[in-house]
Amino acid sequence: MNSLEFCNAVIQVAHPLVRRQLVDYVHNGFLVPVMGPALHKSSVDEMIASTTYLDLFLRSITETSLLKTFLRFILMHRHDNDTILDTLLTRISSNSRVSTM
To answer: Is the pTM here over 0.90, yes or no?
Structure first.
């Protein structure tokens, strides 16, 4: 969480080139390789943890370009042929503990 808050703060004041590179790094270095697989774990505890972290990240981001990157990841990224959005919607519509968090 501290790293994301730091990136958010740097992006707010950075040169546009640095901003663009940092946003790309968050997408390609964190969202795709870390959050993508984490959001598709099969155990309930792992699903709850990854979904909760994603929710926390989205609530704490204030920089527009970083928020756009997270939204692009949710709407466009595919992991094992399923979009992140489809995975999240499936969880919401289920009767599991994940849907009540």
So the answer is: no
pLDDT tens-digit profile of 53-69? 999 999 999 999 999 99
15-51 exposure pattern, b = at least 16 Cβ within 10 A, e = fewer: eeeebeebbeebbeebbeeebbebbeeeeeeebbbbb
**Can you tell me whether residue 29 is helix, strand or coil?**
helix
What are φ and ψ of residue 79, in 5° steps? -130, 120
* Continuous segment of H or E residues that includes residue 14: none
- Distances from the Cα of 5 to the Cαs of 13, 26, 58, 70, 97, in angstroms? 13, 12, 11, 14, 28
For 77, the 3-state DSSP assignment is coil
